[in-house]
Records
---
Amino acid sequence: MSFTIAITGKGGVGKTTVSGLVVSRLIAGNRRPVLAVDADPNTCLDTVLGISLKQTIGSAREEARIIAGKGMGAGISKQEMLEIKIAESLVEGADFDFLAMGRPEGPGCYCYANNVLRTALEKIAHHYPWIVIDNEAGLENLSRRLSQKVDVLVMVADPSRRGLETLRRLHALAREMEVSYGKLALVVNRLRHDQLPDELDAIRRETGADYVLALPDNAEVAALGERGGPIAELPAENELVKRVDGFLKTITD
Ligand SMILES: Nc1ncnc2c1ncn2[C@@H]1O[C@H](COP(=O)(O)OP(=O)(O)OP(=O)(O)O)[C@@H](O)[C@H]1O
Ligand SMILES: [Mg+2]
C-alpha cells in the first residue's frame, strides 16, 4: 500500500519546493521507489527534480485522440491507446518515477485531464510505496482528482498575516469539498526569524492540524530556484533539508 503526501497552498508559497524536498529526502532516507506527480498544469516539478519531461498526461491524451481519430492502432481500443500513451509519459528515474498532468490540449476541459490523471494514478499507484503530489494553487482540483486516500495533506503558507489566513480558508475548503486525508500538516515557509507567528497556535487548534513545520527563508534555496537547479543539490546540512528530514521521520514513523 502506498503512503501518499499531497502538497497544496496558494500561489507562489513554495509548494513545488516543498514537494521536491519531500521527494528527494524520501529517497535519501531509503524510502523508495517514489512516484512524484505534478498535478499543476503549469509543470514545474520536473525542473526541481532535475529531470527532463517528454510528455504530459495532457499531451498523451491528445496523441491518443489523434491516433484513434485517424483510425490507426487497429485492434486497439481508444482507452487502451490512452493507457499506452500514459505509460509512455511516465518518466522513469533511478529512484523515482514522474508523472505530469500538463495542460489539456485540444477540445475538452481540465476536468477531463483530471479524470485521466486520476485513472492513471489508480492504475499505477500500487507499484509505489511512496507517492508525492504537487498541486496547483487552491484545493478545487484536489478533491476531484484524488480518489485514492491521502495520508498527509500538507498546506503551505507564507508567514504573513494574510498568508496564515489562507490556512484557515484551505482547511474550510477541504472540509467543504470533502477531501479525505489521514493527517494534516501546516507548513509555514520562508520565515525570516525563528519565531513562529502567535496566530499559528490558534490556527492549529481550529484546523485540528497534526503537525506544524517551520521552514526558514533560505539563501541557498532561493539561489537554486533562480538558476533552476535540482533540489537534490542542496547539501545535507542545509536547514530546509534538515527540517524536512525531521518532518518525514515524524510522519512516517
Ligand atoms: N524557504 C525558501 N527560501 C528561499 N526561497 C524559497 C523558499 N521556498 C521557496 N522559495 C522560492 O520561491 C519561489 C516559489 O517557490 P515554488 O515554485 O516552490 O512555489 P509554488 O507554491 O510551487 O508556486 P506556484 O503556485 O507558482 O506553483 C521559487 O523561486 C523558490 O525557489
Ligand atoms: Mg508550484
Note: Residues 161-176 form the longest helix (16 residues).
---
Amino acid sequence: MASATTSLGSSSFHSTHSNNYDKMASNSTFSIAKLALSDPIFASFPITSSSYVLDNACGTGIVTSLIKIEHPNVRVLGADLAPGMIDTFKAKAQKEEWKNVETKVIDSKKLEGVEDAVFSHVITNFGFTPGTEDKSGPYQVAKEIWRVTGERGVVVVTTWAERNFTDALEAAALRIRPRETPFSWDLPEEWGRGSWLMKQLEDAGFGNRVTVKRVEGRMEARSLDELVGNLMGAKDMFYKGYSDEEVERLPEVLKEEVKKLESYDEREDSVGIKMVAWVGFAWK
Ligand SMILES: C[S@@+](CC[C@H](N)C(=O)[O-])C[C@H]1O[C@@H](n2cnc3c(N)ncnc32)[C@H](O)[C@@H]1O
C-alpha cells in the first residue's frame, strides 16, 4: 500500500501555485481572516496612522486586502518564504493601488533583518505550520511573532480545526485507486486543537495574555463545478502520480463526494463547504 504525504504549508508548493492560490483557497482563508479582524478583541487594538502591520506568511495578500479596505494608508509588511507568493502579492498591490506596502521574502521561523518590537499588529493567517518535517516549526514562528510585536501590540494566529473538504478528496482517491492509501496531510493530531495553539502563544512569551476562539468559515464558489475545479487546482499534491485517464475521471467523482459531505451546503448564489478554525489572539 503506497501512501502519499504532503508538507502542509510548504513554501515550495505555494510558490508553484501562487497564481491560482486564491482560486484554490476559494475564500476559505479569507472568510476566517474576516472574522478574526472584525472580532472585538482585535478591534480593541485600533489601527491608527502610526500602526505598522505584519501580514506574516502573507501568501497573495488576503489579510492585507482586508486591512487596506478599512485603512488604506496604514503601513504594511507582507512577508512570505515563497518568492512566487510575493510576486503575486506585489501584482495585487499594484492592481489594487495599495499604498505604504512593502514585501519581503523571508522565513517566518527566523525573521532575519526584522527588528524587535516594531509591529503594532502581527497577523498570521494559516501560516503557523511551516511544513510538517520540523515539529518545532510552529513554536519557532510563535517566538518570532512575540519578538517583533511591540508594546501594547496585538497578534492574531489562525489554524484549522476542521478542513472537511479533505474527506471528499480522500473518498475520491479511494474510488479511483481503491487499493492505495490516499494522500495524508501528515499532521500531528494536536495541531488541530485550540489548546495547542494557545500553548504555543503562551510559551512564546505572551503568558496569560492569550485567548483562542473557534469560528466557522466557508470554502465557496458560484457552482459545484467551479468548487471542484478549484479543488482540482491542487491535484499534483493530492493526486500525485495519477495517470491522465485517472485525473480525467476525478472531477465527476469528486463532485459526488463533495455533495455527500455533511459540511456541504448550497445557497442561492453559491455552494460551499463549512470549515472550522481556531483564532488565537495574544497581546503584549
Ligand atoms: C495556507 S497559505 C496562507 C496564506 C495567507 N496568509 C492566507 O490568508 O491565505 C500559507 C503560506 O505560508 C507560506 N509559508 C510556508 N512556510 C513558510 C515559512 N517558513 N516562512 C514564511 N512563509 C511560509 C506559504 O508560502 C504560504 O503563502
Note: The pocket of S-adenosylmethionine is lined by residues 9, 11, 14, 25, 29, 33, 57-59, 62-63, 80-82, 85, 107-109, 125-127, 130 (CB under 6 Å).
---
Amino acid sequence: MELTVLGSSGSYGAPPASTCSGYLVRHGSTNIWVDCGNGTLANLARHIPIADLDGVVITHHHPDHSVDIYGLHVLWRYGLQREHLPLFAPAGVRSKLDALVDGDWGTTFDWIEVADGDKEHLGDIALRFSRTTHPANTVAVELSAAGRRMIYTSDTCSEWSPAEFGTGADLVVAEATYQRAVAHPPHLHYTAHDAGVRAREANAKRLMITHIWPMLDPAASVLEAEEAFGDRVTLATPHLSVHV
Ligand SMILES: [Zn+2]
C-alpha cells in the first residue's frame, strides 16, 4: 500500500501544512480518498486522475475533514458524468453535509453508513472502523492489503487507542493537535505525547503525526511524539508519500 498525504493542517488551513485533513491510500488498482478536508481535492488531482477514484471515506462531519466532498460531487456529477461512487461515513455525516448541496446529492455517491467494529471492502483494500472519543460521531479507519496494515486515528482524545484494531500495525497515522504544554481544554484531541504513547502501547511499527495546530512548531511536536514513542516519528506534510 502507499499513503500520500493531501493535507495535515489541524482544524483550519494555515501554513506550514496549508490544507486540512486528507489522504490518498493506494494499492494495486484501488484508490481511496480518506477525509476531504478543505484544499485536499486540488492536491488529490496532482496525484491521480480524479476519474480513477474508487471510493471515499469521511471519518466525521467536521468541515476540516469533509467539505471538499462538495467539489468532488460537482466534478463527478457534472464534469465526469459519473455516479454511484462508494462513500463510507458514520451516521450523521450525510445529513450535516446536505446543506452543501441543498440536500440534492443525486446519484453521485452510494452512501454506506459505518460504525464501530464494521468491516468493509473496496477493491484491493479492506477497511475496518472504530469509534473514537471525539464530540462528533467519528470513526478511525484501518486499511489493509497484502498483509500490511495502516491505521488512521482521525480525531480523538487520549481515551481511544489504535490498539482497538489490534497491535502491531505497520503504520499509525495519528492526530497530534496539541503539545503537552498547550493542550487546550476541553481535551478533544491527542497531544503529540498522547500520539506517541498510544502508538507505542499499540506496538505500532511506525508513527506519523498529523493534524497539528498551526500555531505550534511541528518540529517540537515531532520531538515530543518521538520521546513518547521511543523511535523516530514522521511528520505528515502535503504530498509526502510513504510505502506501508
Ligand atoms: Zn474533528
Note: The first helix runs from residue 40 to 44.
